[in-house]
Design brief:
The protein is mostly helical. The chain is elongated and about 50 Å long. The termini are far apart.
Length: 179
Amino acid sequence: MGNRLSKIYTKTGDDGTTGLGDGSRVKKDSIRIEAMGDIDELNCNIGLLRAEKLPEKIDALLKQIQNSFFDLGGEISIPDSNIFNPSIIEKIEIEIDRYNEVLPPLKEFLIPSGSKGVAFSHICRSVCRRAERKLVRVAEFEDVRVESRMFINRLSDFFFVLARVIGAQDKVKESLWER
């Protein structure tokens, strides 16, 4: 593979449009581009989370999720394409179930706090929910595979549970909502 990003600026977006993977151009504020931007932002926040001290298995799964985002972004960028591999969804579900088995049951809503890792995971959860809302809006107008939406939906649950796991690892007390 050659140098894919050898020229960073192209000046083609100066008119307020950007190119999709199929060569077509759309406005930079189109819902498709907003969804891709939210997924990119989530990917960056996962990078911030991975900068924290995490168990190797969690870090490896987060890296796999980050790689899956590039496939998902490619699929969103190329209308009618089928790039994203949904097998990651089952891996995420297995980890959610495994973590939930050892966590104490929740009796109230959680306040995102405790340690940087907990807070970063909650930021990922929040950005993930926004990305999901945008992906649902894209699906109102164009084909978006259900597996892509399932992936983002499972991820928000994963980051919620992961925040609890990191909190337990960091030995911080969960902060519960007080009525």
